[in-house]
Here is the input.
Amino acid sequence: MSDKKGIDVLLSKVPDLKKPARVFLTVLYVLCLGALCGVFFFYADRLVWDAPMLSQLAMALVVTGISYLHFRVVEGYREKHGPLAYRYCFYHLMVPYLVTWYACFFHPGIGLPSPI
Here is the structure.
């Protein structure tokens, strides 16, 4: 089952997602952010024996920072961008938040080999 009403609200707030070229660029943006998270985990997890916990902590702090920033600047986005505030907030804060959150969520399940 899909939530048609929720998708309609998202499309009304972020009209770029109605255009196939913009959807492609959005997916490319998500994949690039995900690749950056993967590269970070790949190299950071091999530094020392407890590096996976430290890299997880670092990513969790990034997620928390993005979430905190979102609540701090949302009014400024509304004042500065008017009706396009949701679009800018979606691309500047929500997409990076979701990508880093999912990277933080799936990181423990990857099970990279120990550097030792």
